[in-house]
């Protein structure tokens, strides 16, 4: 399998892209797959026709995490570069201009969970298992997962999941806010696509500005976050023709036709 085949992208219409991890049997995140992911999301960032992305795994797994065989064979001196690469790739996914919806099938554990956490929204099939079992192998989350998990589910739940390495069912992940939706097994991709198409039907520049505002304000004091929101609205949303179209469509009682302008 070539690097280009490890992460594939296909259009789903209306500006939605389906990105598929393909590294059988468990979609382990080795160096080649991470590099391909970085390339795919760089292309999505540059494509102004893209409005939303669905990220999923080929076969029975979303991703079972880092390729432990590859890690075990690396000299200790290479560890900082490996960590930096994972942080960079997942950071790119988190910051990409458009929302990203993870469609979680099977396992999303270790680095696989960290990848899902870098996405904006998560939809899991009922048979999915999610968790951070790194401590079972003498590791800890190293690609930003501990901090993203902390901010998503709160400190007490994050500590329990990371310290014990226990896995959550999709139903339990939904209860603690780790996933947005839990759906019947086999329906996670369809549900994620439906959600992505709903997002893609909204004003693209407003959605992109809102995503930037949410990221920028996450770790700031409230007054600074409010100021950032205001700045983004005035600079990125107020001047758009999509805003005029949205208000006109509302007044005319018709669906808006947003162009991302």
Topology:
Blueprint: H1 3-6, E1 7-13, E2 16-21, H2 31-46, E3 52-57, H3 68-73, H4 79-95, E4 100-104, E5 107-109, H5 111-118, E6 121-125, E7 129-131, H6 145-153, H7 155-164, E8 167-169, H8 170-175, E9 181-183, H9 188-200, H10 204-217, H11 222-237, H12 241-252
Parallel strand pairs: 2-3, 3-4, 4-6, 5-7, 6-9
Antiparallel strand pairs: 1-2, 7-8
Commentary on this structure:
With 261 residues, the protein is an alpha/beta fold. It folds into two domains: 3-200, 2-enoyl-CoA Hydratase, Chain A, domain 1 (Alpha-Beta Complex); 204-252. Helix content is 50%, strand content 16%. It contains twelve helices and nine strands. The strands form two sheets. The chain has a six-stranded mixed sheet, with helices on both faces. A three-stranded mixed sheet has the order 5-7-8. Helix 2 packs parallel to helix 4 (79-95) and helix 10 runs antiparallel to helix 11 (222-237). It is globular and about 60 Å long. The termini are far apart. The relative contact order is 0.12. The model has no long low-confidence stretch (mean pLDDT 94).
Radius of gyration: 19 Å
Strand residue percentage = 15-25%
Q: How many structural domains are formed by the residues? A: 2
Write out the strand line-up for the largest beta sheet, numbering strands in chain order.
Answer: 1-2-3-4-6-9
CATH homologous superfamily name of the largest domain?
A: 2-enoyl-CoA Hydratase, Chain A, domain 1
Number of helices: 12
Look at the structure and give the CATH class of the largest domain.
Alpha Beta
SSE order: HEEHEHHEEHEEHHEHEHHHH
Helix % is 40-55%
Overall average residue pLDDT: 94
Given the helix and strand composition, which structural class is it?
A: alpha/beta
Biggest beta sheet summary: 6 strands, mixed
What is the third-level CATH name, the topology of the largest domain? Answer: 2-enoyl-CoA Hydratase, Chain A, domain 1
Q: In total, how many beta strands?
A: 9
**Assembly state:** single chain
Low-confidence stretches: none
Distance, first to last CA: 40 Å
Under the CATH scheme, the architecture of the largest domain is Alpha-Beta Complex
Shape designation: globular
